[in-house]
Amino acid sequence: MGNRLLNEADRTVQSDSGRSDSLDSGHRACQGCGEALGARYALDAAMRATNGQLIAVNATGCLEVFSTPYPETSWRIAWLHSLFGNAPAIATGIAAAMKVKHHDDIRILAQGGDGGTTDIGFACLSGMFERNDDVLYVCYDNEAYMNTGVQRSSATPAAARTATTPAVGSEPGNVFGQGKNVPLIAMAHFIPYVATASVANLHDLEDKIERAILMRGARYVHVHVPCPLGWGTASSDTIRVARLAVESGLFPLFEAEHGEVTARTTIRRQVPVEEYLRLQKRFAHLFKPKPDADRIARLQAIADRNIARFGLLN
Ligand SMILES: Cc1ncc(C[n+]2csc(CCOP(=O)(O)OP(=O)(O)O)c2C)c(N)n1
Ligand code: SF4
Ligand SMILES: [Mg+2]
Question: In degrees, to the nearest 5, what angle opens at C-alpha 19 toward C-alphas 42 and 78?
Fold first, then answer.
């Protein structure tokens, strides 16, 4: 509300009295839920760009569960709940139906969590990309299966404690490896548009969604959304922790078209990953009883590699 005092061009969708309120109040997300915030901004931006001509498909996960405890719902848009793993396929079918019926003005947006996207829905998503189906897919990445009690996904960062990667043994938390980077995998399908975004930068998120929803073919936006419950962060720290992920280089913001990076958000001042990690109980074992310098350095190396790969300090 506050930014109604800004110039029109500097305001977010949320400050517009004509906003769609796609995800209305009264839902059951935890206080400070990054996913609720990200989805509200993404869907309002998509509704604005399409003049309300939007159909959304939602994979199973926190976003669907907290918004739609049957028979109630907080969605004020055309919205379908798919299975956990088939949101891209359902969205593809709707897009095909709209084409047959000559509803060219109606755009299709599918959305899901990182588990639904990078793991269980991945085959459907890759097929959607490969066929270049006319769908924008938005992944809200909170880095674990939060809705069922914080299990590890292929988007869980190295060293993070989850219910299935406990902080015990000689290598506590999630294993170190390359993980699965779905934005880069999406780029390898040479689809028209891929972007990463964060609730730390809501203008940037809105811009990317507005741009993506009006394109044609398969598009993918991957949004970093802190989860206070799963990450062990204060509800009031959601934006702060999201910003540190970006400023440390752990979550690079970029856009790519047809497989080539076309834009990236540079970092004004790189912060050490330690500043990001220390705010989160899921990394507490890296600092107790004494700092685990070796594993913190390995996480720093991941951030440094991102910065070099995307030229974030140039
Ligand atoms: C086939 C199938 N397996 C498991 C489940 C149980 N399940 C529902 S939501 C969920 C976790 C969702 O995780 P994610 O996609 O990351 O979304 P988040 O809740 O973190 O936002 C699981 C395992 C299911 N609904 N369907
Ligand atoms: S568990 Fe996490 S993702 Fe789910 S509603 Fe709570 S804060 Fe949001
Ligand atoms: Mg998740």
Answer: 65
